Structure prediction request, 129 residues.
Amino acid sequence: MKKTVTVMMVMSVLSMSLYGYSKEDRVKDMQVMEGAMAQIQKGILSNDDKMVIAGVDNLKKSSSNVEVDPKWKMDYSPTYAKQQTENILIYADKIKSSIESDRKHSANSNYTKILGECISCHNKLRKWK
Prediction:
């Protein structure tokens, strides 16, 4: 009886450790990223520095949550996806520093660069034409 209980416990622990980052997780994180981008844009357009900074923080947090699939699951290199994420984080920091320095045009320029990173990645992932 003890053996059976032990085996069942080990099996349940192993099955929980097999949980991976699913497509649904990725979609959810991408939706949060899209919401953060909208928040940044709205903050820039309405001259609301706090909204921009909150959007940047949300974008950085959600970008950091996205996991890259192993190479065998992708048509492109995982290094590419990681580089896109790093670029997004760099441009997000530049938006924040631009807003804090009252340089709205610079913040907008970096917002556009993030959008370009998103589109580049989606071109590869979704095979957009």
